[in-house]
Design goal:
The protein is α/β, with parallel strands linked by helices. The protein has helices at residues 6-14, 18-29, 38-44, 48-57, 70-76, 84-95, 106-113, 119-124, 132-140, 145-154, 160-166, 173-189, and strands spanning 2-4, 32-34, 61-63, 100-103, 129-131. The protein has a 5-stranded parallel β-sheet with strand order 3-2-1-4-5. Helix 1 packs parallel to helix 3. It is globular, with a radius of gyration of 16 Å.
Length: 198
């Protein structure tokens, strides 16, 4: 099972990649879950094209029902880089063995990795958190590679990493893969124990 944070949904919809991403993620993880607030938050932050993508895949999502570890949740909330939704997902991950999550907010992961008093929480999540960039890498290695490459390079950039990798210009699939692999490796180097990927 894979839980998606709202940032991932917003970014994938903005790049018109939500439909193929759901296909790729379901093939690897099966059930996809979203936060109870996702429909409202994501709908408010996406344009018409993004809303069409969300409408197309929404029936394939379940609402996250895993009970969060409230002790972990309360320990995460004081960190300003971790919002309530991310705290809920991370606390649910710690309490549910077969749950993984994908996040589009690296500030959250960096804050968790940089907090010595949360080392036990970070260890409990080891290998169960994916970054948005890992989903992009999975798309670039799939039958949707050409569309992914084209959309990342042509659509308005709403993600700093995508902008850093594309430079706002056309790139090849191999160039995008190299850039995103580098970024994922950088996240691992600062102590974020990411899922091995797709």
């Amino acid at each position: 099972m894979l839980a998606l944070d709202n940032d991932v949904l917003i970014k994938l919809a903005a790049f018109e990649l939500l439909v193929p991403a759901v296909e790729v993620m379901q093939a690897k993880f099966g059930v996809l879950s979203v936060l109870p607030t996702a429909r409202f938050v994501v709908g408010r932050k996406t344009d018409l094209r993004g809303q069409a993508q969300i409408a197309a895949v929404w029936p394939q999502f379940t609402t996250l029902s895993a009970e969060p570890d409230m002790t972990v949740y309360e320990r995460l909330l004081p960190l300003p880089q971790i919002d309530e939704g991310e705290a809920l997902l991370l606390a649910s991950l710690g309490a549910t063995v077969d749950l993984n999550m994908v996040t589009g907010d690296k500030r959250c992961l960096r804050a968790l990795a940089a907090s010595p008093d949360l080392a036990d929480v970070l260890a409990s999540l080891s290998g169960r958190v994916l970054a948005f960039e890992q989903v992009i890498l999975a798309l670039l290695a799939s039958a949707h590679a050409s569309t992914t490459c084209e959309n990342l390079c042509r659509l308005p950039v709403i993600d700093r990493t995508v902008h850093a990798v594309t430079g706002g210009t056309a790139k090849t699939i191999a160039e995008l893969q190299a850039g995103f692999i580098s970024y994922v490796n950088e996240l691992r180097s600062v102590g974020i124990p990411l899922h091995p990927g797709f």
